[in-house]
Write a structure and sequence with these properties.
The chain is α+β, with helices and mostly antiparallel strands and about 230 residues long. The protein has one domain: 3-Layer(aba) Sandwich (Aminopeptidase), CATH 3.40.630.30. About 30% of the residues lie in helices and about 30% in strands. It contains six helices and ten strands; from the N terminus they run E-H-E-E-H-H-E-H-E-H-E-E-E-H-E-E. Strands 1, 2, 3, 4, 5, 6, 7, 8, 9 and 10 form a ten-stranded mixed sheet that branches. Helix 4 crosses helix 6.
């Protein structure tokens, strides 16, 4: 059984772990020929409005993947704004309209090829990120993702924002790759999420530090969650 450890922290509180995230993400992007992605800009390591979901091996010796949450603070644009505003400037107004209730973006989602197929870079990273949104006072949240990840994100309550781009889609980060903007409008209630996922997330919110045996596409995974931020 694969053992993994998932923790959440503010990027500036653990720069060493943030750099591990950067290196792992960079290797995965380069392996598929991507060298320029706005969400992979490393300035976020010094941004107090950024939180990290880091997924490691159970013994904490390897980094398997993770995701980041950028809080819209009115100072630094969200990666989705940098990525799409030149194509559709409406994203700027939509983010601004959501700032009062608390908004941000889940981005930088990745997993190493070593654990491909276990759901580590999609299911567990997204679940953990969604779990901590209320802890950091984000009622709404954006994500810019591949068509596959958009389908996974739907089970967590994300819906495609069809008012942006071409029915919610953009060619990004390369002209031959399609990306979709998705949005969750109430991270507290998650009314659009699948009931099974909503149940797990509610359990994790009540007890952010716990162990669970999860069933992934390639078999059972023992997950240690440490999601207190």
């Amino acid at each position: 059984m694969k053992n993994i450890y998932i923790r959440a922290f503010r990027a500036v509180d653990d720069k060493e772990a943030s750099l591990k995230f950067v290196e792992g993400h960079k290797r995965v992007l380069e392996s598929v020929g991507i060298t320029e992605v706005t969400s992979s800009n490393n300035d976020w390591i010094s941004n107090p409005s950024v939180y990290v979901i880091l997924i490691e091996s159970g013994d904490r010796t390897k980094v398997y993947g993770g995701a980041r949450i950028h809080v819209a603070d009115g100072n630094t644009p969200l990666p989705v704004e940098d990525a799409t505003s030149s194509i559709d400037p409406k994203i700027l107004d939509i983010v601004k309209a959501n700032m009062e209730k608390g908004t941000g973006e889940i981005c930088g989602l990745w997993n190493s090829l070593e654990v491909a197929g276990f759901g580590i870079g999609s299911t567990y990273a997204i679940r953990s990120a969604i779990c901590i949104l209320p802890m950091i006072n984000l009622k709404t949240c954006f994500a810019l993702c591949s068509p596959y990840t958009a389908r996974v994100a739907k089970s967590f309550g994300f819906l495609i924002n069809k008012s942006l781009g071409d029915n919610g889609t953009f060619y990004y980060p390369k002209i031959d790759l399609l990306a979709t903007i998705v949005f969750v409008d109430d991270s507290f209630k998650l009314i659009n999420a699948e009931s099974s996922e909503r149940e797990i997330i509610q359990t994790l919110r009540k007890e952010p530090s716990q162990e669970r045996n999860e069933s992934g596409p390639k078999g059972e995974v023992q997950v240690i969650y440490d999601l207190t931020v």
